[in-house]
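Please think about what follows:
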Amino acid sequence: MQKRPTGWVSSSPSTANTCGQDRREARLVVGSIVHPIVNIVIWIIVTLAIGKAFGKSTAFSIFLLMIFGCNRVSNLGYGSAVYTPAHATAPAPAA
């Protein structure tokens, strides 16, 4: 097992990489690139689902909810939009 570098050796990138710490740094770089992309994808999915649940178009969801989200979500709550859950369908005919 390699001994962990201490002092100035641990603060120098070139010596840290030669001491076997490059895997940890690679995970941090990959994580810092992937994490925001995953957040944006989830944000798009949730925003489109909210717009659909309130009967709004995709253009409304993209332009108003995504770009001006903080004040346009209140338009859904205080406006004339009505929430209709996705599982709500027409009642079945009586048998």
Notes: Residues 37-78 form one domain. DSSP finds five helices and no strands in the chain. The chain has a mean pLDDT of 74. The CA atoms of residues 65 and 72 lie 6 Å apart.
